[in-house]
Amino acid sequence: MRFATSRYKYNAAYWIHLDALTPGTLANIDAKFVAINRLEITTSELSAFTLNLAGHPKSNSKQSVEVTIDGKKIMSKVADALSFSKREGEWSAVKYEATANSKRPGAEGPISEAIASRHVYVYGTADNPYWALNLGFPETVQASSTEFNGETYPLASVVRYHFAARGKMPAVDLTWYDGGLMPKRPDELEEGRLMGDNDGGVLYVGTKGKLMHGCYGKSPRLVPETKMKAFKFPPKTLPRSPGIMEEWVAAIKSGNGAQTCSNFDYAAKLTETMLLGNVAIRMAAKNTILQYDAEKMSFPNLPEADEYLAKTYRPGWSL
Fold this sequence. Notes:
- The protein is of the alpha+beta class.
- The chain is built from 5 helices and 17 strands.
- Strands 1-4-5-7-8 form a 5-stranded mixed beta sheet, with no helix packed on it.
């Protein structure tokens, strides 16, 4: 069994559990049975681990266990779980006990705890409709996905958001696809023509037609192409961005409240909206369309889903 990780969040695989590692540094372990109750193990960047041998076909609970770790032979008493730790470079059959300030599962640091969990990965495609349609926060969100567990993301998912009317803009539904899943191909789209581009894309379905573009809003085109060729472009009224880096530098230099296009007021709402999709994926088994109260940041019709909206940090680790 070979296993490597740099995160306590993903510190277990099959019958191996890594107890002490340095987050951000890749810890490795290679463990194999060479005979009944005899194991050979090599490690790197690892200070403690546990072997959960209950039910393993090469583990006999009536005999002692011989474990060789990085060349050192250790005899251990019979147990379903065997723990080992390294002190001053020497391995011994001693269980690792984390101190109050040690990094450990659930306490890897503020950035990791705040960001590295529960992500829906957005490849630039959701930003364009969110901005163009002034979506704000959704009223409801629901999702479906392939099977997954607490250690991995699903292979593919579909997330459906419903947004209420906004001023003169009517209510609208936004559907996110990933993992190779795609929306229904429009009847108007020419045969052999790619939907979006190789990195993703967006399809807008309106009452008078359809608009399609690639990732990050590249090459917007009406569908079919005959409509695009007949379209008369309106005059340019929106300010053009010189580039995200140039915008950022200009905002810093101006000192008069200048903002980037994707400033925090905007980006925070977009990010919150996308992360709601991940909660919907986790709650899919409840067979409930999540109703979202943005002001209270809660799901009034399924309060148990609220645990994924906030987190209580240990003293000294809060944001």
